[in-house]
Amino acid sequence: MSECGEGCDRWRVGDVQHTAWPTPHSNASFGSLQKQVSIMSSNLTAKIDEIQCHQHADTSAALHAIRSQLQELNKSVQTCQSEVVEVKRDMVAIKQEIDTLQAAKEEIEELRNAVIAWRSKHEGGR
After folding, report:
1. Which residues form a coiled coil (predicted)?
2. For the chain, how far is it from start to end, CA to CA, in angstroms?
3. What is the pLDDT of residues 10-64, one digit of tens each?
4. Structural domain count, the chain
5. Alpha-carbon distances, residue 73 vs 70, 79, 82, 106 (angstroms)
């Protein structure tokens, strides 16, 4: 039995029989030749079925590997998407902090200008 498994057995045509080619000098009758051609045809069909079975098994294994890789890739993409969401959230928080600091800076500059104006007004009058 082939290592392909039981699924391929339904395509097989009995046991494979190997017979030699008739020589040109043999007294083989037409019926005997016909039988040999039939056996050879059966052998060839069995061999083709076995090759197709192996190809099917190889294809199935390759598809399984591809599916596994796709699942891993999907997990990786989901992880990346989660990380992108977290980075965007962090960027919004940083932007808010920058806006707060910018407003505080502007307020400090206004206070400094007011102090400078007050000093010049009060010190200039002395």
Report:
1. 63-121
2. 115
3. 444 455 454 555 555 555 577 788 888 889 999 999 888 888 888 888 888 999 9
4. 1
5. 5, 10, 14, 48
Task: Please provide the average confidence, as pLDDT, over all residues in the chain.
Answer: 83
Under a CB-based contact definition with an 8 Å cutoff, are residues 49 and 2 in contact? no
How far apart CA 49 and CA 9 sit, in angstroms, is 9
Of 79 and 54, which is predicted with more confidence?
79
Q: Evaluate whether 46 touches 1 at the Cβ level (below 8 Å).
A: no
Percent of the chain with pLDDT over 90: 50
Q: Rounded to an integer, what distance in angstroms lies between the CA atom of residue 63 and that of residue 57?
A: 10
117 DSSP 8-state letter: H
Torsion of CA 40, 45, 48, 54, to 10 degrees: -120
Residue ranges making up the domain that contains 50: 27-124
Whether residue 14 lies inside any domain: the answer is no
In a domain, 7, yes or no: no
